[in-house]
Write a structure and sequence with these properties.
Length: 165
């Protein structure tokens, strides 16, 4: 009888002790994915910052964490929203393996349908300028990549110049 009393007492005391609350426990898949995405972005920014320092860059920072090193500044007026321009681009992985290049990419500034980084860089430069940019994956080809050219989640080194017409 005493055994049953103590067993019941132990079980009741275990049931009555609530789980300790943690500071933040993601409860939904959306919250977990947002948390993961934020941590990945911060890690990529840290890596790109380290790369730019090791290469001796003193970059400008654009939207989305894009780091831009000016190679040649023509001092011309910067491209404006809705300008139709032509760019020469070389897209490489951060380890400098070439993904692809395009010598005549036509686009309208602010309305480019491709990676956000190209539009951001296009609005930063002018005719005759040449820049290199380190691009986090979310501003490049994202988690899907560009099949056959850019792997999923790749951080990129993009070389961009705007020829004088």
């Amino acid at each position: 009888m005493i055994y049953i009393f103590f067993s019941t007492l132990i079980l009741v005391s275990c049931w009555s002790n609530p789980k300790p609350k943690t500071l933040h426990t993601p409860e939904t898949l959306d919250e977990v994915l947002l948390d993961y995405s934020e941590k990945r972005f911060l890690a990529e920014i840290s890596i790109l910052d380290s790369l730019s320092k090791s290469w001796g860059w003193q970059p400008d920072t654009l939207a989305g964490g894009i780091l831009v090193q000016t190679i040649f500044d023509s001092s011309n007026e910067k491209n404006s929203l809705s300008d139709e321009i032509i760019l020469r681009i070389r897209v490489k992985l951060a380890n400098e393996n070439l993904c692809f290049e395009n010598d005549s990419l036509k686009l309208i500034v602010g309305h480019y349908e491709g990676p956000k980084a190209i539009d951001e860089i296009a609005s930063f430069i002018s005719e005759g300028d040449s820049v290199n940019a380190l691009v986090p994956s979310n501003m490049g080809f994202g988690v899907k990549g560009l099949p056959g050219f850019v792997p999923p989640g790749a951080m990129l080194l993009v070389e961009v110049s705007q020829p004088i017409r």
